[in-house]
Amino acid sequence: MTEGAGTLYLCATPIGNLGDMTPRAVEILQQADIIAAEDTRHTRQLLTHFAIHGKLLSYHEHNKQLQGKELIKALLAGQNIALVSDAGFPGIADPGELLVKEAIAAAIKVVPVPGANAALTALVASGLPSVTFFFGGFLPKSRKNRREKLQEWQNIPSTIVLYEAPHRIKEVLADILTAWGDRPLVLARELTKLHEEFFRGTVSTGLEFLQAKEPRGEFVLVLGAGEPHKAEPALEPLAKVRMLMAQGSQKKEALAAVAKEYKIPKRELYNRLLCEERDR
Question: What is the pTM of this model?
């Protein structure tokens, strides 16, 4: 660790219920020289509730490059910084990930202060397998990029956890249904809040549910596993030679191509083919 440098604390904050704020997180925020927050107005309300008075700086997606450099300078100068997101654990599907990476590169001590997390909260209450699971964060906003990402993740053999905004949730589910077909789905919203709600069904029934009830609040999607991708069984070398010859390749060309693909000496493959032809 860099001598004389401060510590970067990653402080989880409640995702809805203020009772989920840990005493340790309160203590760290009270003692930090700087509190870096995604939305200072939102975080100010949290700090006021817990009677925390500290230097609050903005650190978000649009200023993370410049502000991150300033925060690293402050850490190297010996100041302790507590990083918070709008809700939950900083560094998960938010700009805090970059600051952590920069702090580690500068040999600055990084200390997680655990607490609430929306993805895990939804997963453990979903009823779907939690070993193993894949967290994908937010899907791309562009439909083209989103469909490409869904195609990439289609066969992941694990429960899949995603985040989504209410104004895109129906469009995203429609794209998932098209790309993956119907599969088990749990929609979780307003987690830990008064109107916490879980919908358990399938992607198609989830769409029906959202058509009948206007989506509100941020959503966590927990989806059943895809089928693991099964590679086509490899052809035996001589079978591959015969296939290529049947498709119009000359014997010499077919032997050379298969010998290269299977890393077999061409002469050996040729002799095996001759033996096979003699035995017929």
Answer: 0.78
